[in-house]
Amino acid sequence: MAEDTQSYASHARMVPGYHYFTGLLLLVLLIWTSRELLRGFSVAGLMDFLLVLTVTLTAYYARTFALGVQDRVIRLEERLRMSQLLPDELRSRVHEFTTEQLIGLRFASDEELPALARRVLDESIDDRKAIKSAVRDWRSDHQRI
C-alpha cells in the first residue's frame, strides 16, 4: 500500500487516540480529582488525585523520552547520510550541525541536501521549522514516533 506524499504542511504525525482522547481524558480526570479533593479532603481522594497525576506524568514523560530518542537517532542517521552525500569541503563540517538543524535537514532529498546544508551553515539557520520550510524536494518519513 503506497503511503501519502508528505510536505512541510502535512508531515506532522498526529495519533488521535493519544494526542486528543488520552490527553483530554487525563486532563478531565486531573481536574475532577482536584475538585473532589478540594471539596472535601480524604485519604482516598488524595490517593485518587495522586494516581491520576502519576498516570498523567507517565504519559507525558513516555512521549518526551521517545521523542528524545528519536532526535538522537535522526542526528546519527543524518550525520551518516551527510558523510556519504556531501562534497569533501562540507563533509569535514558535519560536526558543526546542531541536532535542530539535522532534524530540519532530514526531509531534504539527497539531491537537495548539499546546497541546503551549505546554506544552513553559512547563514546559521538554527530553527528546524525554517529549515523544513526551505526544503523544496521533500523526502518523506513515515516511520516517526
SSE diagram, text form:
Elements: H1 16-39, H2 43-85, H3 88-91, H4 99-105, H5 113-122, H6 128-134
Helix pairs in contact: 1-2, 2-4, 4-6
Write structural notes for this entry.
The longest helix has 43 residues, at 43-85. The model has no long low-confidence stretch (mean pLDDT 91). This protein starts with 15 loop residues before the first helix and ends in an 11-residue tail after the last helix. 66% of the residues lie in helices and 0% in strands. By secondary structure, the chain is mainly α. Helix 1 runs antiparallel to helix 2. It is elongated and about 70 Å long. It has helices at residues 16-39, 43-85, 88-91, 99-105, 113-122, 128-134. The chain has one domain (16-134).
Quick structural summary:
The chain is mainly α and 145 residues long.
N-to-C span: 20 Å
The biggest sheet amounts to: none
The residue ranges in which pLDDT falls below 50 over 5 or more consecutive positions are: none
How many domains is the backbone divided into?
1
Overall body shape: elongated
Strand elements, count = 0
Q: What structural category characterises the helix and strand content?
A: mainly alpha
The sequence of SSEs as H and E is HHHHHH
How many separate helices? 6
Average pLDDT, rounded to a whole number, is 91
Task: State the helicity in percent bands.
Answer: 55-70%
Strand residue content: under 5%
Rg computed from alpha carbons, rounded to a whole number of angstroms: 21 Å
